[in-house]
Amino acid sequence: MAGTNENAEVKRAWYVLRAISGKEAKVKEVLDAAIRNTPLGDHVFQVVVPTEKVMSMRNGKKVVKEKNLYSGYVFVEAELYGEVIYELRNTSNVIDFLTGRTKGSQPEPLRESEVKRMLGAADEIEQIDETGNDFMVGETVKVSYGPFSGFSGTIEEVNKEKKKLTVMVKIFGRKTPLELENSQVERE
Asked: N or C: less crowded end of the chain, CB within 10 Å?
């Protein structure tokens, strides 16, 4: 083993780049292209922007969009040394590496537990309903969509698996149970 080889202690690890918020996907795109087409690919192995699929209602239609889990951060698996650090730091829309608190400190690798959490979050594609799934029996809600829009009622039953509620609504002076999706009601 060479005695003064600068790469001797360089290990493959995960690091965090701070990016301009909203430009994380663009940073990933640029770095992925550099990994494929330049020698940077010999030292940078993966670029990850963890996202989750979020379901919301827009004009009565279910819309699924991707939302960044860690806004302003891009995760890279790399062997860091001089030139690689310079290339990553100077990628467009990258502010800098996430480093320790001391000024001028080197980029710090993520711990194994942090990497597992980040990668686990990136693998999950569970749909999260932005309208919330924490309704409770006895709560008063207003129907916001559908033929009974504008009516108010009390929640009688909550089905978390199906994301449905049974709401007791007064229609023509009579209490009537309605089965509604969580997304069809809002808290009063």
From this structure: N
Q: Is the dihedral of CA 118, 119, 120, 123 positive or negative?
A: positive
Q: Give the chain's length.
A: 188
Tell me the CA distances in angstroms from 106 to 4, 87, 95, 169, 175, one per residue in order. 20, 15, 15, 61, 66
What is the reported pTM?
0.58
Q: How many CA atoms lie within 13 A of 110 on its CB side?
A: 20
Predicted confidence (pLDDT) per residue in 55-94, tens digit:
777 776 777 878 888 889 999 999 988 889 999 999 999 9
- Tell me, what DSSP letter sits at residue 182? G
Contacts of 184 (CB under 8 A, 6+ apart): 57, 143, 144, 145, 146
Within 38-156, where are the H helices? 82-89, 112-123
β-strand pairing of 140-143 with 51-58: unpaired
Instruction: Provide φ and ψ at 85, rounded to 5°.
Output: -60, -45
Q: Per residue in 130-139, pLDDT tens?
A: 445 578 888 8
